[in-house]
Design the sequence.
């Protein structure tokens, strides 16, 4: 009950500043803007190029070669090159991502002998198609093969395609949890009034991923944190004003408990605001695009944790100075400083590994500074990875394989939590021992 009473006081302060209503209004505008977007599915035949790429390209090996881990690409499990000749939906429309699809796939072998061996023993080639078709690796696939068997050449095949080096397969697929995200869609705005971009467009998941990255993760989260730093920067200084603090201190509650409750009240404030904004965008994208990304909902927790680091700094300097301006400015300065340290550590690590700059004293200095400071930048990477996993699986796999400096989440979370505990501990100690 004491916590709820302090939360009510903090909420009343935010309402009195009128900024709370501005945040709600801005969030509502963003939700309505997203609601005006429309996503029209295109025919399954537009998947042809992507399906052929999964069969003919080994993205993982290409990335390894580009990074210099392997100088030559490894031999594929089959020497055939594949084409998707036709795609039909026997029980539904071609524009329906939930439809079962029938495909005719052509495999071209280097010579007639290898093609004859594939016809005699189709198992290895069929296994290759099962593993590679519509797959981005690591069991991440946007279509699931239900049946595959040898087929005759299509009646309309050209004379060149009747060459004995060609072999054909009929393949039946079912949708997976990623089919909707990987399906090609046209984008419309203002409730279908017009199309801002000409086809072909990226899959709908990639479109939503880009919108969410820019609108929510970059602009929205930054604005929400900045505004919350400004609003909550006055919570504790107002509590420490002469007259107000004496009234609170006579109550039967430990001083450090009072400060922690006030701190949690600020976190609850941004949590509720973020929940409204991101929850609304999540609901709209689910209804409009059919994509219910748990990674987007994770942004609510990530944004709150990001703010928790800055608000701990604000709390300490609010106790030390009783000044809202100082608390706000120091919190913003800490935000910029943490960002610069994270970017600097990544840049130094990359340039040293690439041999562009020599190893010097600044390398352990930057690494040491990065090690002891909280890692809000890691939270950004966590948000991006969570969104990509749900909406853009191909990008997620490529990012994972290209990642030269993977995040140690145990270390990152532990260091950030220890920083918050240390800063809040100092604030509680100062508040508990100071005379008012």
Sequence:
């Amino acid at each position: 009950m004491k916590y709820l009473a302090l939360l009510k006081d903090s909420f009343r302060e935010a309402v009195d500043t009128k900024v709370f209503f501005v945040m709600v209004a801005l969030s509502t505008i963003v939700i309505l803007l997203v609601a005006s977007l429309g996503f029209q599915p295109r025919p399954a035949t537009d998947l042809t190029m992507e399906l052929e790429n999964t069969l003919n390209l080994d993205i993982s090996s290409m990335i390894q070669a580009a990074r210099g881990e392997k100088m030559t690409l490894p031999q594929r499990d089959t020497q055939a090159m594949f084409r998707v000749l036709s795609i039909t939906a026997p029980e539904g429309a071609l524009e329906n991502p939930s439809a079962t699809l029938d495909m005719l796939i052509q495999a071209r072998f280097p010579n007639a002998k290898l093609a004859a061996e594939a016809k005699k023993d189709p198992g290895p080639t069929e296994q290759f198609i099962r593993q590679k078709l519509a797959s981005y690796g690591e069991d991440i696939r946007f279509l699931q093969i239900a049946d595959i068997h040898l087929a005759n050449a299509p009646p309309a095949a050209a004379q060149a395609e009747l060459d004995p080096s060609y072999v054909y397969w009929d393949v039946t697929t079912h949708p997976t949890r990623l089919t909707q995200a990987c399906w090609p869609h046209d984008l419309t705005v203002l409730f279908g009034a017009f199309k801002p971009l000409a086809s072909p467009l990226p899959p709908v998941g990639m479109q939503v991923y880009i919108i969410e990255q820019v609108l929510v993760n970059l602009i929205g989260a930054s604005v929400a944190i900045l505004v919350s730093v400004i609003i909550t920067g006055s919570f504790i200084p107002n509590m420490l004003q002469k007259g107000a603090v004496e009234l609170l201190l006579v109550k039967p509650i430990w001083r450090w408990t009072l400060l922690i409750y006030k701190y949690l009240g600020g976190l609850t404030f941004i949590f509720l605001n973020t929940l409204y904004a991101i929850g609304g965008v999540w609901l709209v994208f689910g209804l409009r695009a059919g994509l219910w990304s748990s990674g987007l909902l994770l942004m609510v927790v990530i944004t709150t944790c990001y703010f928790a680091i800055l608000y701990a700094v604000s709390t300490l300097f609010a106790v030390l100075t009783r000044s809202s301006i100082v608390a706000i400015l120091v919190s913003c300065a800490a935000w910029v400083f943490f960002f610069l340290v994270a970017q600097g550590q990544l840049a130094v690590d990359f340039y040293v590994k690439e041999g562009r700059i020599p190893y010097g004293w600044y390398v352990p200095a930057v690494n040491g500074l990065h090690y002891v400071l909280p890692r809000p930048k890691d939270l950004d990477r966590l948000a991006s990875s969570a969104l990509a996993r749900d909406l853009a699986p191909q990008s997620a796999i490529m990012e994972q394989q290209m990642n030269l400096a993977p995040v140690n989440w145990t270390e990152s979370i532990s260091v950030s939590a220890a920083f918050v505990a240390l800063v809040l501990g100092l604030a509680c100690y100062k508040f508990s021992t100071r005379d008012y």
